[in-house]
Amino acid sequence: xxxxxxxxxxxxxxxxxxxxxxxxxxxxxxxxxxxxxxxxxxxxxxxxxxxxxxxxxxxxxxxxxxxxxxxxxxxxxxxxxxxxxxxxxxxxxxxxxxxxxxxxxxxxxxxxxxxxxxxxxxxxxxxxxxxxxxxxxxxxxxxxxxxxxxxxxxxxxxxxxxxxxxxxxxxxxxxxxxxxxxxxxxxxxxxxxxxxxxxxxxxxxxxxxxxxxxxxxxxxx
Length: 221
Hints:
- Helices cover 39% and strands 20% of the residues.
- With 221 residues, it is α/β, with parallel strands linked by helices.
- It is elongated.
- The two termini are 27 Å apart.
- It is found in: Cytoplasm.
């Protein structure tokens, strides 16, 4: 899951960026509101964490502009504006959730997972594929009832494929979800992640469509 963070406070922004990255999210952080708003058109994000009190523009205006231009991405407002009229204004302007500062990182992560899950039409946190179960809330996987050890990027790829099992994900789309703009990508990184997942789950679990991309194949029994 790739998250866009627009937050001008360096301490909060840095904490969100590194904290969410450790929790198996890919995060891009902008302190400038206008640059952050434009970033939504440059990458495929799953959700946005948006501050309202930005120095160069009002976060509420950014949100309203997105909604007026039919950007339906889930938006979590994270702000110091805790008065009821502010919360109502945010939700009525198109925010999907509203969280006041100070906050706990785990709660931000949980709210993001819930927003993304609902945006993809899923009610439960668990995704089941045969004998494989992915817990998107805990960011863990089990196979035949046993814990399945995965690296951060292996988990992220597995989650991406399972959330859209009928969709063929191109190599470029996978790279876009797994790596932020500031991260270097090895030329064969995606192939290595696919190989490792097949080795841990089953050789036919991930199907390779030549020149197109990857898709969930045969569910493990």
